[in-house]
């Protein structure tokens, strides 16, 4: 699944266009490297995002095309 779509489906970012813009601006890294929106996300990847004034690190646990709102948080695990 594309990185921008994963960010939207997992609800780390609310809209896919915003996720796409964050990737284009270099604010999203996967496994320590800046990634484009078209990057193919796999379980085990570590995402780093700098949005607003905060930084978020999360490990991809699962990749699903659709997910219920309550189950979206189960797609990733936050790292310290």
SSE blueprint and pairings:
Blueprint: H1 3-9, H2 16-24, E1 28-30, E2 33-34, E3 46-51, E4 54-60, E5 76-79
Q: What's the name of the CATH homologous superfamily? A: RNA-binding S4 domain
Roughly how many Å is the radius of gyration?
A: 11 Å
- Describe the sheet with the most strands: 5 strands, antiparallel
- Percent of residues in helices: 10-25%
- Our estimate of the beta-strand percent is 25-35%
Count of discrete domains: 1
The number of helical segments is: 2
Characterize the structure shown.
The chain has 80 residues and is α+β, with helices and mostly antiparallel strands. The chain has a single domain, classed as RNA-binding S4 domain (Structural Genomics Hypothetical 15.5 Kd Protein In mrcA-pckA Intergenic Region, Chain A, Roll). Helices cover 20% and strands 28% of the residues. It has a 5-stranded antiparallel β-sheet.
In short:
The chain is built from two helices and five strands.
Pick out its properties.
single chain, 80 residues, alpha+beta, Structural Genomics Hypothetical 15.5 Kd Protein In mrcA-pckA Intergenic Region, Chain A, five-stranded antiparallel sheet, 2 helices, 5 strands, 28% strand, globular
């Amino acid at each position: 699944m594309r990185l921008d779509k994963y960010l939207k489906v997992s609800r780390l970012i609310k809209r896919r266009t915003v996720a796409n813009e964050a990737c284009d601006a270099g604010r999203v890294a996967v496994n320590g490297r800046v990634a484009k929106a078209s990057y193919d996300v796999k379980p085990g990847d570590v995402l780093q995002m700098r949005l607003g004034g905060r930084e978020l690190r999360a490990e991809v646990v699962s990749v699903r095309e659709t997910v219920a709102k309550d189950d979206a948080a189960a797609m990733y695990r936050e790292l310290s």
